[in-house]
Amino acid sequence: MRRPARALLALIAAILGAAGVSGAPRQGRDAQGPCSKAPDANVLVNRDASGACEYFTGITMTDNPASDGRSYTIVLRTEFGRTPDEFGFTFGEGEPDAAGERTGFRLALDRDGQYALMRFRGSRRTMLIDWSRSDAIRLQAENELRVITTRGVIRCFVNGRYVGGYGADVRAGRLGYYLKGAGRLEVPELNVSDGPTLPAGVPWPGRVAVADDLVSARRLQVGGGFVCQTAYDDQGYVVRDVAPRGLCDLPLLTLGTFGSQLRIEVEVLLRAGALNHSFGVFLGRPANGRDPTYVGAIDGQGTFQFARRQGSWQRLTRLLIHPEVRRGLGVWNRLAIDVHGRTLRGVVNGVEVGRADAGADVEGLIGFYVDEPGMAVVFRNLRVLEL
Question: Taking the complete model, does pTM exceed 0.85, yes or no?
Fold first, then answer.
């Protein structure tokens, strides 16, 4: 049964001092920005559509060397017609630096059903997990955010579902909550505990699941087939589309299946074929080989696109030429695809070139994609990271 937030904050301060909590919680402490907060309720109201406000609970976590980590759980409630543009949980905020700016972290939701993890310094922020959609988020309702910090790792959960993690060390700092844009935010529950136990199946964020230069080890299958022909040479792993008609999508079966928090990195070079046909990677294919299949691909004319095959092909992004994509035959491009639940993000040569909503969590087999008969594409330096 949930305790009222006011009583719960007092209880936390009383019983978790040995676990590294300092500072008695005081209602109304450090309410910042164009907001109002009732002294007897954990409710923030912001009437400024372009402004933001933040409230600090009075709880400051201090480093506890005896603990393996901490778990922070907060329940945030919004109402129909009064949901702010953005709202969330602030944790690990340190003391002001020489410039008077504080640094900390936020796990945030927005009114469109997206989540993000960010690091901030003063008014500036860096996205650690960029805005991504998740079916776990309840619109205009109550959402439970949970952050588990262990030495060097932050793991984030929304309503019990793991949505991603990031490598960062958070040992101490103030706790609070905030909203951006006009709206109302209620916090009926806040829990802090030491020595959290990770739920089963939660990966280590940033863990390298696959690292293969595709030159030296030569672990992937080689040979001919009706659709794809593969071989190794001194440049990398060569995939040719030899189908009488249609595409070659080569599943990397030996790598297994992957969940919906993923980053795929690979370098690609078009060796032969038409410049106006695409090549890259596919992902999210069920283990039974059926659709849906998602593709992130470039072509020799400098375009990038996300597409989905569900019986027929559907383009998820506009087909645009990007100056970051190197054009022509015989040139290398570094392609990266980030998957956060149902959100796909494409990066070429270090620059974001596309983002798409897949409509459902993307998980399953991954592989290489070559669009047109006669095309030959070289792949090298493949890495797959579990985020």
Answer: no
